[in-house]
Amino acid sequence: MNIKGEKLTFLKDLLKDVVDASRILPKAQIPIEETNIPTENTTGITLIRPGGRTCYPAFWIRDFTMSLESGFITTDELKGMLLLTAKCQRGAEPWHLDTGAVVPPFAIPDHILLNGEPVFFPGTYSSGPDQGGEKWGYQPPFDDNYYFIEMALIIICR
């Protein structure tokens, strides 16, 4: 094999290993230092988080969607995370948080904890009314709505 082919094989193998390390199987426990964050995947589905190993104890919609083109995420995994994301979407009423921040109607979460609770603001693992505000912004990122649509389109096209 030529050097170019060897490099591509190496990169493909590396990508597969990273995706494999990023999976959190149902009922799997991940070791993390912060004790107030759920450490067991109780969602009933395999979650894929950024970074693999013990970092990032949640499923990020944006990072997951960007990883779909790798070819190493199954349709069943995608379907499970799409349905979990849909379940965590806000309803028709805005959510006014204690911090002064507002989660608008039909917002898609920024990330979802291992217990299935949605977090709408980056930088926190709190799924309660103390997220957002001066530290994390007064409106959640809106790009996750588009990533949610992209996840659905990928399912349709598979």
What is the strand and helix layout of this fold?
Layout: H1 3-22, E1 23-24, E2 47-48, E3 58-60, H2 61-67, H3 75-88, E4 95-96, E5 102-103, E6 111-113, E7 118-119, H4 143-157
Antiparallel strand pairs: 1-2, 3-6, 4-5, 6-7
Helix pairs in contact: 2-4, 3-4
Which runs of at least 5 residues are low in confidence (pLDDT < 50)?
none
Residue-averaged pLDDT, rounded? 91
- One letter per element, helices H and strands E, the order comes to HEEEHHEEEEH
Count structural domains.
1
Largest pleated sheet: 3 strands, antiparallel
Q: What gap, in angstroms, lies between the N and C termini? A: 32 Å
Binned, the helix content reads: 25-40%
Strands, count: 7
Alpha-beta content class: alpha+beta
- Give the overall form: globular
If helices are DSSP runs of H or I spanning 4 or more residues, what is the number of helices? 4
What is the beta-strand fraction?
5-15%
Computed CA radius of gyration, to the nearest angstrom: 17 Å
In spatial order, strands of the major sheet run: 3-6-7
